[in-house]
């Protein structure tokens, strides 16, 4: 049995002011006529029934998920008691999935990525599940880099390569944090480094064994949760144990320590839409390199991203390399080289207690 877990609890803060606390990035139509989470579910339905697809999120977004994916069973929406990191999120979700499908192989993926080549994506997932089923194997999808990106983590592969279903499957040497520019250029030239897509495939039993070995305190919390699954105090116990779990990523908690990790290199037309500059990669640009969305008049404007979300005219003259985004209550004007730092504006808004703009 193959199941999947879509992580949909993020706030998409670097996509502010379009992505907001009450309607974050994964629920927006960034590319195409469906929201990103709707696209993620539709892709997986090429491979499995909706009954086998689970979404983990926080309480704030449960109704949004039900509204956007009305055919998703309500009991397949897993609610995190509080926001933690990906290790607790995946751990909690795994015991829910195991409860319903004890021997399943789980595909874990984010809700807010763009994948243009969906047919190839599904074929890669088929191969990844085969590899994951062969033992205590963890499989990840590594995106073959096309430029020296400093905003992504990387995966280094060894020279141990197998061919399965005409796809190369490499053994992973290590996971690497976001590099500086020179290092990213070296990775691109070396040819055995891949962008970390944040997509993982493993048997439910494999990830549980990894938690037991590499995060024993968290595994103890999980064990207490599992004992309470058929108890009247189920929700209270899960909440209390979840609060004790560390705020730790799955990369740091498991992937940097586990053995038997394999990576399948792929292209897929993938983008994590991490910030506004992603639109340079996923949208068409005009003859001056601009991405234009909405009611825009531009003259002598080059390499800009300009979006109007309320019908108001945005007129630009003589600007370069800027991001301009207008919503009903906020206008963002930002240089492209600061796109990764948009979250700092939100931090300042919180300090000034201007939460209505978040």
TrEMBL record:
MannoseP isomerase/GMP-like beta-helix domain residues: 294-349
Principal EC category: transferase
Question: Per the record's keyword annotation, is Nucleotide-binding included, yes or no?
Answer: yes
Substrates-to-products reaction catalysed: alpha-D-mannose 1-phosphate + GTP + H(+) = GDP-alpha-D-mannose + diphosphate
> Has the keyword rRNA processing been applied to this entry?
no
Q: Which UniProt keywords apply?
A: GTP-binding, Nucleotide-binding, Nucleotidyltransferase, Transferase
Nucleotidyl transferase domain residues = 4-285
A Pfam entry, by short name: ManC_GMP_beta-helix
Taxonomy, superkingdom: Bacteria
Q: What is its EC number?
A: 2.7.7.13
One GO biological process term is: GDP-mannose biosynthetic process
Molecular function (GO) terms listed? Answer: GTP binding; mannose-1-phosphate guanylyltransferase (GTP) activity
Question: What is stated as this protein's family in its record?
Answer: Belongs to the mannose-6-phosphate isomerase type 2 family.
What the entry lists under PANTHER family is as follows: MANNOSE-1-PHOSPHATE GUANYLYLTRANSFERASE (PTHR46390:SF1)
What is the official name of this protein in its record?
mannose-1-phosphate guanylyltransferase
């Amino acid at each position: 049995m193959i199941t999947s877990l879509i992580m949909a609890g993020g706030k998409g803060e670097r996509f502010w002011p379009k992505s907001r606390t009450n309607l974050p990035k994964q629920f927006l139509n960034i590319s195409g006529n469906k929201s990103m989470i709707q696209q993620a579910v539709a892709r997986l339905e090429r491979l499995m029934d909706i009954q086998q697809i689970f979404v983990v999120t926080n309480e704030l977004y449960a109704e949004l998920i039900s509204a956007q994916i009305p055919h998703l069973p309500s009991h397949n929406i897993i609610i995190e008691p509080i926001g933690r990191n990906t290790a607790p999120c995946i751990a909690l979700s795994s015991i829910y999935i195991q409860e319903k499908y004890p021997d399943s192989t789980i595909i874990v993926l984010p809700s807010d990525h763009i994948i243009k080549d969906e047919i190839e994506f599904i074929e890669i997932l088929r191969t990844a599940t085969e590899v994951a089923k062969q033992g205590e194997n963890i499989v990840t999808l590594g995106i073959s880099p096309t430029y020296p990106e400093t905003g992504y983590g990387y995966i280094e592969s060894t020279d141990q390569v197998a061919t399965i279903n005409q796809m190369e499957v490499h053994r992973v040497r290590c996971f690497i944090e976001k590099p500086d520019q020179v290092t990213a250029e070296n990775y691109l030239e070396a040819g055995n480094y891949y962008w970390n897509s944040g997509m993982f495939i493993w048997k439910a039993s494999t990830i549980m064994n990894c938690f037991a070995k590499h995060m024993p305190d968290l595994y103890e919390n999980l064990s207490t949760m599992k004992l309470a699954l058929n108890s009247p105090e189920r929700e209270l116990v899960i909440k209390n144990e979840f609060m004790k779990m560390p705020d730790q990523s799955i990369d740091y908690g498991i992937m940097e320590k586990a053995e038997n990790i394999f990576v399948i290199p792929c292209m897929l037309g993938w983008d994590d839409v991490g910030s506004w500059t992603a639109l340079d990669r996923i949208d068409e640009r005009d003859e001056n390199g601009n991405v234009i969305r909405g009611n825009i008049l531009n003259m002598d404007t080059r390499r800009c991203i300009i979006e109007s979300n309320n019908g108001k005219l945005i007129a630009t003259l003589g600007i370069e390399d800027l991001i301009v985004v207008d919503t009903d209550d906020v206008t963002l004007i930002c240089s492209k080289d600061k796109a990764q730092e948009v979250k700092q504006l939100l931090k300042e808004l919180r300090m000034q207690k201007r939460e209505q703009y978040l």
